[in-house]
Design goal:
Organism: Phasianus colchicus
Strand content: 5-15%
Shape: rod-shaped
Membrane topology: Peripheral membrane protein
Number of helices: 15
Number of strands: 12
Largest sheet: 5 strands, mixed
GO molecular function: actin binding
Radius of gyration: 77 Å
Protein name: FERM domain-containing protein
Strand order of the largest sheet: 2-1-5-3-4
Helix content: 55-70%
Low-confidence stretches: 1-13, 480-508, 575-602
Order of helices and strands: EEHEEEHHHHHHEEEEEEEHHHHHHHH
Structural class: alpha+beta
Keywords: Cell membrane, Coiled coil, Membrane
Amino acid sequence: MAMEIACFFGLKKKQPKTFKVKIITVDAEMEFSCEMKWKGKDLFDLVCRALGLRETWFFGLQYTMKGMCTWLKMDKKVLDQEIPKEDPISFHFLAKFYPEKVEEELLQEITQHLFFLQVKKQILDEEIYCSPEATVLLASYAVQAKYGDYDPNFHEPGFLAHDELLPKRVSLQYQLTAEMWEEKITAWYAEHRGIARDEAEMNYLKIAQDLEMYGVNYFPIQNKNHTDLLLGVDAKGIHIYSINNRFSPNKSFEWSAIRNISYSEKELTIKPLDKKAEVFKFFSSQLKVNKLILQLCIGNHDLFMRRRKVDSIEIQQMKAQAREEKARKKMENQRLAREKQLREEAERAKEELERRLFQLEDEARQANEALLRSQEAAELLAEKAQIAEEEAKLLAQNAAEAEQERQRLEITALKTKEEKRLMEQKMREAELIAVKLVKESDRRAKEAEHLKQDLHEAREAERKAKQKLFDITRLNYPHMVKYPHYLPTDTRDANFDKGSIKLDLKDIDLKRLSFEIERERLDYLEKSKKFEDRLKELKSEIHALKLEEKQSGLYSHWNEVLGSLDRSLGNVCNLNSSHFFKHSVVSRGLHPILIHVLCGCY
């Protein structure tokens, strides 16, 4: 923040010459135009009025000259002091003295805020040592002061990425990522819900004031033995530290126990209130250091004594105003808290109503969808019912057809059974006929064998008769032996009768006999043909039933019957007609020689 303020004194027509200064606070910058004759107090009061600060005794204007931090003197002109020759001249508005108890002494909110910012910066810059655990807790209060109450919906992970909250020493001391540190800080931060900004800053300062290095200004010194030491000045007194230990002082002088402090050149003397006690003398490197030490000692001692006296009317008024302001802020915070609570409850109620409304809308939508689904299901069920009715009709029709088919199958089964029975009967008849034919064939075959034997015997008898006839003829007709064809027929016949061969052919009608034999043969052949036709007819009927009887056990039996019929038919057909003729002749009782003669005719 930049601001220019022109300072006028008196009602002179000509404006006096001025110089510019730049005041740097912990969180802002301001520029002022100052008169040449202004003292340090004039500039300091101007800055305090600009900030609205009434607790001015804690602060001062600091500048750096030749590498050494120095405080602007209030009773000397600004331009008469050893300040940097620059335009504008830079001064840092900082706390020069620290309170013993921040909660009791810091009355104004601006005072508290400036102390909070300065102490926070000192901790982050490691001018004040702080343990890692306390650092995380302090960081959580700093976040509360900056961001207010924690809201997980708004403060998402990574919202502290650009904030400097921990000293680099702490960040490097542990092998934790920035996200892990943020998680630890956020865990504490969430516990500070409901704490206002000034309360969070005060809690921060109350923790910080218990740190060993809080509010201590260190200066390098040497004792009379030229041992390097550190001298620390704070609100409670003067402390002597070893060069490597700024936490625990080797010796301390409280302000109440110090009678006098003085310096001469580089030597600084501390006289205790107890006159018997040893006077402490030390040496600094520069005279300016002794002056600065003495200046800090005087200021801290004055504040120390003021705290133990009755407050002035100004302080009392400030404390009363501070109490009233705190009470007002407390009531305001309570009112805001109630309003916030009511607002949160209203928001929760609104969210609940919205959720309920959304739920009701969702339920209504689901109900509508369910209704539509129900309507669709009803339509689908109606269609299914219609389809089911049609299917029922179709099934009834199919059932009727099935019943008709069943009845037809029953009738067919009965017919099939009847046909099967008839076929079995025909099969048995065919088997009987085949057996008879086989037997007849066997009998005829045996008769043929007998006829063959009789024929052989007849031929043998004929041969013997011829031989005997030849012998008789040779004895009675020797000349006919040489010429047998000249022998008269009646003579041969007479001789033949004489040879006891009696063949009476007169009683035999050869033509009639031949006719009868031929007729019987034809009858036999006709009967055989009829039987063969009957067998073929049975065979065709059996073949027609094969496809219907494949699943029954009669199929193989039909094949056997057909085979037997074929064999019988073959046996019957293989009978020689000559066998039949011979059988017929023999059955007539003819002589074997005649049989031979007749057979030769065929």
